[in-house]
Amino acid sequence: MYGTIAQLRVKSGMEEQFSAYAQKIQEKDPGEVASYVYRMDADPSAFYVVVIFESKEAYVANANRPETDARYQHMRGYLDGEPEWNDGEIVFALT
Fold this sequence. Notes:
Blueprint: E1 2-9, H1 15-24, E2 32-39, E3 46-53, H2 56-63, H3 66-76, E4 84-89
Antiparallel strand pairs: 1-3, 1-4, 2-3
């Protein structure tokens, strides 16, 4: 499996709108296994997004889809700056 962990900072006052937008996305992308959005207790404007794919190839293919870019561009409207992306192979999972 392969995936990404993104650290996001949401614009002040947009936290609830961002959470609602994230919850609205209910369909998995091709090759997606799971996704999680965390809102930090210590800083309500800090979010982490975790997305897991079947393989690196599925992750890269999804990243290159126009639909993925459109969703990302919409999400950027809620953010205060660029996300910090951390991609990598999942070497252990307990499910």
